[in-house]
Amino acid sequence: MGFKHLDRHAGRHSWLSEHTTPAQRLWIAIAAAFVAGLMPSGAWRALAVLAVAVALGAWLARVPATTLLSRVALALPFFLLPALALPVTVPGAAVGELGPFTITEPGVQRALEIIVRATLAVSAVSILISVTRATDLLGAIHHLPLPHLIKQSLALGYRYLYLLTDEFERTRRALRSRAGHTSLFRAWRGRAATLSHLFVRAHARGTRVHAAMLSRGYRSEMPTLAPAARVHPIWTATIVFSLAMIWVAGYLEVRG
Fold first, then answer.
1. pTM (2 d.p.)
2. Could you write out the three-class secondary structure of the chain?
């Protein structure tokens, strides 16, 4: 079970996949995201070093630039829209006018900083997703110090999302085979009419899948016969320590 568009680069042999396990890559991505988010305001040199580190990670993982940019672009609206309000809401020296609003220099710097931070954090997580199979990633989440209910919700939510996608593809093929090439209005009308039917079918199939999981020994974690990957954590510790040093450098840069 999995999404082909998520796992298409997970089978590639790379330095990152060879020297780290999925759980270790998860900790690296979390560390990079925290460093980007907690970087002191105004530490542009440290952010530039972090950007070089993220780019180096993408090269070591052999993730194509187009794939990385497309996945970052999906998350771009979530932090771009709030950042666009900062240039006209943060007080400070005016640098321009936008209709009735005044654009301030501190607001522009704050917006650019938020965009850069969010881009680096999303890029680090995207590299992790690109080189790790979704099933391995779900297994790695169980090693995080999170409440058991959150881990279960993430695992079952992924499986149900897969069922929704699969049932949607089946429903769309059935609609095309019965309706043929029709007008856009009739096509959308047919899709809207089958939306509730889609959720009913996905829920029924999800119930059967859950019953099958229980019959195969599922008890909050699916048992597996595959041996667990054993990789010495020296490289993971080195990368996390380097990310921490980048944050320290940013703190010292701001403190002057």
1. 0.75
2. CCCHHHHCCCCCCCHHHHHCCHHHHHHHHHHHHHHHHHCCCCCHHHHHHHHHHHHHHHHHHCCCHHHHHHHHHHHHHHHHHHHHCHHHHCCCCEEEEECCEEEEHHHHHHHHHHHHHHHHHHHHHHHHHHHCCHHHHHHHHCCCCCCHHHHHHHHHHHHHHHHHHHHHHHHHHHHHHHHCCCCHHHHHHHHHHCHHHHHHHHHHHHHHHHHHHHHCCCCCCCCCCCCCCCCCCHHHHHHHHHHHHHHHHHHHHHHC
Sign of CA dihedral 123, 125, 128, 129: negative
Exposed/middle/buried for residue 167 (C-beta within 10 Å: 0-12, 13-18, 19+): buried
The span from the CA of 18 to the CA of 231, in Å, is 8
CB atoms within 10 A of CB 84: 12
217: phi > 0 → left, psi -120 to 50 → alpha, else beta; which? Answer: left
The pLDDT tens digits of the residues spanning 240-251 come to 999 999 999 999
Mean pLDDT over all residues of the chain?
A: 80
- Mention every residue, 6+ apart, whose C-beta is less than 8 A from residue 17: 61, 131
What would the pLDDT profile of 108-151 be if each residue is shown by its tens digit?
A: 888 899 999 999 999 998 888 888 887 788 778 877 787 877 87
Query: How high is the pLDDT of residue 2?
Result: 45
Measure the CA–CA gap between 208 and 54, rounded to whole angstroms: 42
Q: Which of 231, 171, 234 is nearest to 201 (CA)?
A: 171
